[in-house]
Structure formats: structure tokens, C-alpha cells
Amino acid sequence: MALILNIETATPVCSVSLAENDHVISLRESSAEKSHAENLIVFIDEILNEQQLTVSGLDAIAVGKGPGSYTGLRIGVSTAKGLAYGAKIPLLAVSTLETMVEHALMTIDRDNLPLPLDENTLLCPMIDARRMEVYMALFDHKGNRIQQDAAMIVDPDAFAMVSQSQTLVSFGSGAAKCQKLIKAENKRFLDGIYPSALAMSSRSYQLFRNNSFEDIAYFEPYYLKDFMTTTPRKNLLQHPTK
């Protein structure tokens, strides 16, 4: 059994969970603006005390690596690195956009939402950056990555190459901001999805099992600062090799 503390602070939501392998046993979250510095250590202490654990009793610490807010990422990553270094336990880094996809799939399944999930479905997590800028990526209906993370300025033609046979399901703070601009033929929006530590456990446990540990001294958040006007069309509809 692996006890993994999951920390996600890349967006305005400060989220912490404790998981046994990939099963979450405790969760703390707050969406209060600019509260990460105030809440993060409190949430970690509450969870550890609740489970009668110390940091050294954990098997690993996982942190959302971004993309996302510069300040939020710095707070989360520096805290995770400090705890992992002090306790001499491994550090894991989980993509924030991948966590959003896991949260979306969990929500669709839990609430039995009438959304298509088949080979023609594209899942598109989007994090608000500024103005009409977002951090985004594309995944298939099973959560497999199709496109690498991209920083994009959303315009009406950004998803023009999504075919009529495909359904684009977008979610996250960036999607909420850009709903009216996205002109894909078949588009659906999923509300209430954010990078929750509740959804980190499956990916952090997979990283742990694969010994995919970060170098604590040199690990840095994934800021993804460069923006492009549209998503590269050659990558948009390119599915992973079966």
C-alpha cells in the first residue's frame, strides 16, 4: 500500500488529498481567491492529523505541475518540494490538465451525464490565462492524450478543423470564458470541472508504481507561457497510435 499526498494549486482552487494507492481517503479544498498561502499548510496538517500520520509516514508527495497560475504553482511546488526533501520521500509531478480530464470523466460517470464518450469524442480541458488566452490540450474519450499542452488565444476559428462527426467536450475556467467564441460544429460544455486533488490519485499512483520520480532539487513548475493564435491543425485531430 502506498500513501500519497496530492497537492494541486495551479488555479484559484487550493486542493489537497490523501490517497491509499489510487483511492482518496481524505480531501480538503477551497476556492477562495488568493488563499493558497493561507490554506495549503492548514489543509495538509488537517489531513495528516485526521489520519494520525506525519509527513515521514507518507510514501510520496504528488504536486500539480501546471500549466496554470505562476503564484499558485510556486506555492504548491515549493511546499511539496520542501516536505518531500525534509521527509526524504519521492516527489511526483502530475499534469494539471490531465487531472482536469480525470475529474471530468469521474463527474460524467458519477452523475450519469448524457455526454457522448466514444472514439469520436475530444475532451478539451481549458484553464483561464488572461484576456482570451487559455492553457489547453486534447484527449480522447478514455483520457489518453492526443495533443500536448498548448497556450492558445481563442478565436472563432480555433477549433474549425473538428469534423461534424466529432464532438468537442470542453470544460474548465477557460472553456467557461470562451463558450461563445468556440464555433465547432458539435460542441458541448461541462460545468463544475477544475483540477481537484480528488482526481489526481490515479495518475499519481501510476507514476509512483513506475518510479517516475522528480529530482527535488531541480524540479520546476510547467508554466507554459508562449501563446499562439490558433491550435496547430496538424495536431488537432491526430489520435494516438493504437
Give a written overview of the molecule.
The longest helix has 18 residues, at 70-87. The chain folds into two domains: 3-96 and 195-209, Nucleotidyltransferase, domain 5; 113-193 and 227-236, Nucleotidyltransferase, domain 5 (2-Layer Sandwich). It has helices at residues 36-50, 70-87, 96-110, 173-178, 201-209, 233-236; strands at residues 3-8, 14-20, 23-30, 60-64, 91-94, 121-130, 133-139, 145-153, 167-171, 187-190. By secondary structure, it is an alpha/beta fold. The chain contains six helices and ten strands, in the order βββαβαβαββββαβαα. It has a five-stranded mixed sheet, sandwiched between helices. A five-stranded mixed sheet has the order 8-7-6-9-10.
